[in-house]
Amino acid sequence: MINTNDFFDALSDETRRRLLALLVGDDELCVCELCYALDLPQPKVSRHLAVMRESGVLSVRREGLWIYYRIHSLLPAWAYRILDQMGQGCAALAIFQADRKRLKEMPNRPVRCCA
Amino acid sequence: MINTNDFFDALSDETRRRLLALLVGDDELCVCELCYALDLPQPKVSRHLAVMRESGVLSVRREGLWIYYRIHSLLPAWAYRILDQMGQGCAALAIFQADRKRLKEMPNRPVRCCA
DNA sequence: TGACTATATCTGTATTGGCGTATATAGTCG
DNA sequence: CGACTATATACGCCAATACAGATATAGTCA
């Protein structure tokens, strides 16, 4: 079960909120998609994902070379609702909209074979 | 209008979450009530309240010697819902329950005259 | 095996942010 | 005015954390 402090720690950084906002909408995305969408160096994205993976906010699945992250399915209901509201609150912001746009227009997105 | 970063910054510290959780339930409380409930030194509580006041998460009313804080009434709907869900998520935790208990049992609570 | 791709981790640095303590401000009341 | 109460702020210190850049790991495919 996730720790409350860890959950709010995930929300305390804008980069992490950008990652979460994408994942709330898209159910699962791989690291290279997230890097491309946020237009940030891969180690930076990877470190933030690691923080959230280690605290149980995100879960991970490997498929070949790609590693897919998603919102952890065992979060308590209130935590889901907060993520959802955060997504709504951020949807109006230019940065978050640009992230969505870049993701949508990303060339050669990896194809899930056996989601 | 509140800044999204500032809003999540308010949630990023446990002391601030304890303050917010009390205020979500009680509509307004003065600094000495909050100090007593959290059992923390006054400057520490005051500094955390100042952070949230300056970013527009809390608003303030003076009544004589006492200063009453409350959740700001102009937060966007999604922010309210997050505060509400945070309150529910934390309600199960011992620290937050103890805060409520101390507040309820506090002797000589100041009396609002003209709320 | 070796080249290549995707992702993770390490290392050193700079910044942020919380803390305790001391002190300042502001209002009340004699 | 001076004593008192409630609250706010300033200061110096320390720990946490984000960062860039370099490097390691792990899987794939020739």
Please give a handful of descriptors for the protein shown.
Arc Repressor Mutant, subunit A; 115 residues; homodimer; alpha+beta; three-stranded antiparallel beta sheet; DNA-binding
| CATH homology group of chain A | Winged helix-like DNA-binding domain superfamily/Winged helix DNA-binding domain
List the strand order in the largest sheet of chain A: 1-3-2
CATH architecture name of chain A: Orthogonal Bundle
Rg of chain A, please?
Answer: 13 Å
Largest interface comes to: A-B, 20 and 20 residues
Portion of residues in beta strands of chain A equals 5-15%
The number of helices of chain A is 6
Description:
- 2 copies of one chain form a homodimer.
- Chain A has 115 residues and is of the alpha+beta class.
- Chain A has a single domain, classed as Winged helix-like DNA-binding domain superfamily/Winged helix DNA-binding domain (Arc Repressor Mutant, subunit A, Orthogonal Bundle), CATH 1.10.10.
- Helices cover 58% and strands 12% of the residues of chain A.
- Chain A contains 6 helices and 3 strands, in the order ααβααββαα.
- Chain A has helices spanning 4-11, 14-26, 31-38, 42-54, 77-90, 94-104, and strands spanning 29-30, 58-63, 66-71.
- A 3-stranded antiparallel β-sheet of chain A has the order 1-3-2.
- In chain A, α2 crosses α5 (77-90) and α3 (31-38) crosses α6.
- The radius of gyration of chain A is 13 Å and the shape is globular.
- The two termini of chain A are 25 Å apart.
- Chain A binds chain B through residues 4-5, 7-9, 11-12, 14, 17, 76, 78-79, 81-82, 85-86, 88-90, 93, and chain B through 4-5, 7-9, 11-12, 14, 17, 76, 78-79, 81-82, 85-86, 88-90, 93.
- The structure holds a DNA duplex (30 and 30 nucleotides).
